[in-house]
Design goal:
With 84 residues, the protein is an all-alpha fold. 74% of the residues lie in helices and 0% in strands. The protein has four helices and no strands. The protein has helices at 4-10, 12-37, 45-69, 71-74. It is flat, with a radius of gyration of 21 Å. The two termini are 38 Å apart.
């Protein structure tokens, strides 16, 4: 328990809380900046969701492809692992 790296494991719930807080803060900040530039109008909701989808979809697809193709080459063992 006295190891420095184990303290990262113990503080994992705080890291998740900070991540969600930062995401909400930055999202609302950029939305308020957009409203300031558009004289108080927020814009259309579908455009906001489409913008978020376009930003996040390439990273999501890359991570799915990485875990699907490359991680199985290095991450498994056992008698039935390579059958699947």
């Amino acid at each position: 328990m006295g190891d420095f790296l184990f303290s990262i494991v113990l503080s994992a719930e705080h890291v998740v809380d900070i991540f969600f807080w930062l995401t909400a803060f930055l999202g609302s900040y950029f939305l308020l900046c957009k409203m300031r530039d558009n004289e108080g109008l927020m814009g259309s909701w579908p455009f906001l969701y489409l913008n978020r989808l376009v930003r996040l979809l390439p990273l999501y697809m890359f991570s799915l492809f990485f875990f699907w193709k490359f991680l199985v080459l290095f991450g498994g063992d056992g008698p039935l692992f390579f059958m699947y």
